[in-house]
Amino acid sequence: MRARWLGRLPYDEAWDLQRALHEGRVTGRTDDDYLLLLEHPPTYTVGRNGDGSNLLIDRAAVRELGAELFEVDRGGDITFHGPGQLVGYPIMALPDSRQIVPYVRKLEQALISTLAELGIDAWPEEGLTGVWTEQGKVAAIGVRVARGVSMHGFAVNLDPDLAYFDKINPCGLTRPVTSVSALASRKVSHEEFIDLLVPRFAEVFDVRFVEEQRAAFARGTGREFDVDRRVAAGTFSGATGGEPVLVSGRLAGEPERPEWMRVKAVMNDGYRDMKRLMRTQGLNTVCEEAGCPNIFECWESGTATLMLLGDTCTRACSFCDVKTGKPGEVDIFEPLRAAEAVSSMGLQHAVLTSVNRDDLDDGGSGIFAQTIEEIGRRLPDCDVEVLIPDFKGDRGALETVMTAGPAVLNHNTETVLRLQRDIRTAANYGRSLALLARAKWLNPAGFVKSGLIVGMGETEEEVVGALADLRAVGVDIVTIGQYLRPSARHRPIDRYVHPDEFDRYRKEGERLGFAHIESGPLVRSSYHAKEAVSSKS
């Protein structure tokens, strides 16, 4: 079983992530059970047994509270989810899907045992679900079991704003609710509770959690920056002083670059022709902006990844060399010029990406769609691959891109769960998984792709765990490559991953059932993009 502490994630994205993992478990796409652990922004959910009568305010008042309301497919009536609450969604195959009540009782027992570790006396109540204390209900439970696999789960009030519960009759009852922190007379964090819950859950359900995630709990979830190291290197935003000092091209503590990472710059006619074409059309390429080590090989062969929506990103990820700042106006003619460039090259497989444009209502999805359509008009037989940002989880923006018909939808997860918040500014691991699952549902016959960068502080076990997650939600193609620090002010290189380790990732990806996995020191998202698709078409 794999436990995933995802931090805060909007309810609709978490719901889709549950569905994707449930689908993966039911269809055999994955053999792993999951325990998703997270918190939501303010959200009310009404289960199958509720008719809305236990919501004591109207829907307009819900919106005024800054909350959302969902009617969901679990059992039970209405409940609240929000900041300060730990929500757990076990996606697990049950030995006997008819034994739902014993499953619920085990969930209650796991929570009761965890509370006992904190010195809190709690119990189940006859004829009801959830966990109760002398001060009121502290945890709610609502589940669904379909085709032998569970969804939804439990919500524990660690330290939420209990005033939200005043607007409902929780679970259809008029009894009081309380919090773990109130019962313990001190603040109990998500991390503390999770560290106690995971082993209790394992005992009650007689399951084994893989060690890579247990280790991640012990080290934290990526919410805290490695301040000492980054300040010493001059890469942390709060650092003071001058430019970081490089010695023989390395920051303090960085390993020496091995022979297998050395790339020869060959600026032949093919390279120069590509550069001239990009400048003539006034286009940007991620090959240049991100300092890709394969630029000479790819440009010589007539392949480039066009970067739409300018060269300035609204995010500042610690691994990326793309310029950060306030972007300029959207160029509505860019799709035409990009399509002309693709047509001039006579490509059979074109790759488009963009900077993050969080300043735009649609995240730039309209420009992606227009470019795909313009390429299709000029080169109907050209497959278009798009490497998109997360669009802040906006389902409509993703649908805009997918409606245009890309052959491949690529969205990079970049790194393992533990390092997400440190490395991917404003991104979320759960959001990325939900986006990839949604893309597969929108075009089941198309390819969905993602990429990882290694050498940033992850462990081999964590990379294997990330591969398992990507396959479980329906990803078809994965790329894995070595992190190369773009400048002295970027995140230091933790290690150079040996080619043998990359080969192990490739073999693990094949075992998990990916259609294609490209794994090697110099691999990047678009490396051998055409070959990855054509070999499996």
Protein traits:
globular, 2 domains, 537 residues, TIM Barrel, six-stranded mixed sheet, 35% helix, eight-stranded mixed sheet, alpha/beta, BirA Bifunctional Protein, domain 2, 19 strands
Describe the model.
This protein has 537 residues and is α/β, with parallel strands linked by helices. It has two domains: 2-219, BirA Bifunctional Protein, domain 2; 259-534, Aldolase class I (TIM Barrel, Alpha-Beta Barrel), CATH 3.20.20. It is 35% helix and 18% strand. The protein contains 18 helices and 19 strands. It has helices spanning 11-27, 59-64, 100-117, 180-184, 190-205, 211-219, 227-233, 269-280, 286-289, 295-300, 334-345, 365-378, 395-403, 420-423, 429-442, 460-472, 499-512, 529-534; strands spanning 2-8, 34-39, 43-46, 68-71, 78-81, 85-91, 131-133, 136-146, 149-157, 284-285, 305-308, 312-313, 323-324, 349-354, 383-387, 408-410, 447-454, 477-482, 516-519. It has an eight-stranded mixed β-sheet. Helix 1 (11-27) packs across helix 15.
